[in-house]
Amino acid sequence: MRKRTRSSVDCAVVDVWKREVGALSTRNFAHRLAASEDLVLRLDVLRKLEKHRGCVNTVSFNAHGDIVISGSDDQKVILWDWETGKVVLSFHSGHHNNVFQAKIMPYTDDRSIVTCAADGQVRQAQILEHGKVETKLLAKHQGRAHKLAIEPASPHIFYTCGEDGLVQHIDLRTNTATELFTCRPQRARRYMSVLHLNAITIDPRNPYLFAVAGSDEFTRIFDIRKYKWDGSTDFGQPVDYFCPPHLVGDENVGITGLAFSDQSELLVTYNEELIYLFTKDMGLGPDPSPTSPLYNHSDEGEMSQDHESGASPADIETGANIGPQVYKGHRNSETVKGVNFFGPKCEYVVSGSDCGRIFIWKKKGGDLVRVMEADKHVVNCIESHPHTAVLASSGIESDIKIWTPKAIERAILPANIQQVCDIKIKTQI
């Protein structure tokens, strides 16, 4: 006989009762409620933020969570009060091409903004009195500069990466950009002398560690403590590599997005492939070779259905976690898509898709729990609010959509979502 499990609503009611009698702390109550699957199933569009005149390539929240910042093909950066939908400030970024990333530096009263773009430039915008904005060039890449990574809790330090394979460290106190290294393929690949980097992210629990990834199968981890600021040593050697075993040696895949969880888990999304979650003990080490135990575990590159879930049949029985957790169902072929976590303790994984939908999976187990229509074409960016169950998304359309758990009815997962997505993608081609 199957044991009955409590629904999300039942759990929420019990949590409210515990909170009222003092058996659950305010913080734990808020975290448990915000992670409720019931809230995920009630996410709906609160409003659309409409002012850009081109694809919106980047959205993010400030540290307080009351402001959304966006950047677009129209080369503008806009700060929004997302709760009212009003524009707080709009200005030209100073870039000559599509803005790919715009972020507010923490502890700057939301007055210091860093950006990178398709023109290869890395710039800072300083918001002065009366809404006046001054922008200046900080660094440059040869080719497009896709991403920035801000050192946690630092108002001064951030990193950049670009299609020239270059990773730079920038200190706003000195306005200097230090070229750390140029990332190159692990082994010879056709037509590729440097890696075109699409993503960079910093581990929030170990901020001296950062990850980069791009046009090959590996995510590389670097330790900034190993860099000699006098330039006396070569800093181009990663301290660890991550890759699903069956993709090692696959020249047809690349990585479009990375994210670290608050627990130092590494989330990686591949083009023409799936999304994988690695724990820090799943690395291949500083020299990813076929002798790696993780590589050998892949059974010569062919994965069974159980391997796709991140474990062998024996591992499932014992509860061991050998391989990375897999998230599937979306499509990542047409654009450079990000990937992210959602929930106060990163309980969910979120991604956009070529079919114009947002996909949400349970982090643990990889079950798909929600699919939401979010763009007529492609969804590229999904960002989580820093404190509550709110999402911001953007894509090919020129608006930003704000999602809150306001729906009266709980959403039902379509049974034929894969077929529906395939049909929509075919009609777009």
Automatic annotation (TrEMBL):
Q: Where is this region: Disordered?
A: 287-327
Q: Which residues cross the membrane?
A: none
Q: Name one Pfam family in it.
A: WD40
UniProt xrefs under InterPro entries: DCAF8, WD40/YVTN_repeat-like_dom_sf, WD40_repeat_dom_sf, WD40_rpt
PROSITE patterns, per the entry: WD_REPEATS_2, WD_REPEATS_REGION
Q: According to its record, what are the GO cellular component terms?
A: Cul4-RING E3 ubiquitin ligase complex; cytoplasm
Q: Which UniProt keywords are given for this protein, alphabetically ordered?
A: Repeat, WD repeat
Q: Which organism is it from?
A: Nicotiana attenuata
Q: Where is the composition biased (Basic and acidic residues)?
A: 297-309
Which protein, by its recorded name, is this?
A: Compass-like h3k4 histone methylase component wdr5a
Positions of WD repeats? 49-90
